[in-house]
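Here's what a typical entry looks like (Transposase zinc-binding domain-containing protein):
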Amino acid sequence: MRASLEVADIFRSAGPAYRAAHAGHLNLGQLKVMTAIENCRTAALGGHVEACDDCGHWRIAYTALP
């Protein structure tokens, strides 16, 4: 079960404005980590379909960071 709010949700909503406000003060490593968190469990990292053999229900499960 997914929590109602995750760190990635905050990064996705506030990340672009944060990067703009701190342009020139974030190093490449910090920018890469922010992008990786924003992409976690999205189509950007790919995913797969999970299906129940009993009822036929299916859902897309996106890849998370290791």
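Residues 7-62 form one domain.

More examples are in the samples folder.
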